[in-house]
Amino acid sequence: MGMDAKTDMKSVEVSDAAIRRVASILRDEPGKTALRVAVEGGGCSGFSYTFDLVDNQNDDDVVIARDGAKVLIDEISLVYMGGSVIDFVDDLMGQSFQIRNPNAVASCGCGTSFSI
User: Fold this and answer.
1) Which pLDDT value is given to residue 2?
2) 5-115 in CATH: which number?
3) Residue 23 confidence (pLDDT)
4) Do 37 and 99 touch, CB atoms closer than 8 A?
5) Which residues in the chain land under pLDDT 50?
6) Alpha-carbon torsion angle 33, 39, 41, 42, nearest 10
7) What is residue 77's predicted lDDT score, i.e. its pLDDT?
8) Hey, where are the domains in the chain?
9) Which residues contact 46 (CB under 8 A, 6 or more apart)?
10) Amino acid 111: pLDDT
């Protein structure tokens, strides 16, 4: 890898639907400034995603901001999420953020857990 790891990693995209949803959540949550998406160990497939409303960002966060929405992903989570698309789905199963991760070889039905 080169000197700057950030340029070597694939970026994460946020769909327009997810941007609209994040913007609307943040409008309703005074004091919260961003949605943090992180990858944690655990879940039925080895890793799981967490979504948290936060009011701060860290120096190593990757920031995706547009149209009144801000999404933060820390560098460690980005390693697992490179090339992913964060989407917001509103269907019969309900409303949820979903991450389409090309690195995931197995995922569970709930869509929040995966293995690589």
Assistant:
1) 41
2) 2.60.300.12
3) 97
4) yes
5) 1-8
6) 80
7) 93
8) 5-115
9) 106, 113, 114, 115, 116
10) 52
| Predicted local distance difference test score (pLDDT) of residue 8 | 44
> Among the residues of 1-116, which ranges form H helices?
5-8, 16-28, 75-81
d(CA 94, CA 6): 34
What is the structure's pLDDT at 41?
83
Among the listed residues 76, 79, 96, the one whose alpha carbon sits nearest the alpha carbon of residue 87 = 96
CA-to-CA distance for 13 and 114, rounded, in angstroms?
18
Global pTM reads: 0.80
- Cβ distance 76 to 39 under 8 Å? yes
Interacting residues of 102 by C-beta distance below 8 A, sequence separation 6+: 83, 84
Residue 43 gets which letter from DSSP? S
Residue type at position 4: D
Torsion of CA 80, 82, 59, 27, to 10 degrees: -100
Residue 71's nearest CA partner among 11, 112, 115 is 11
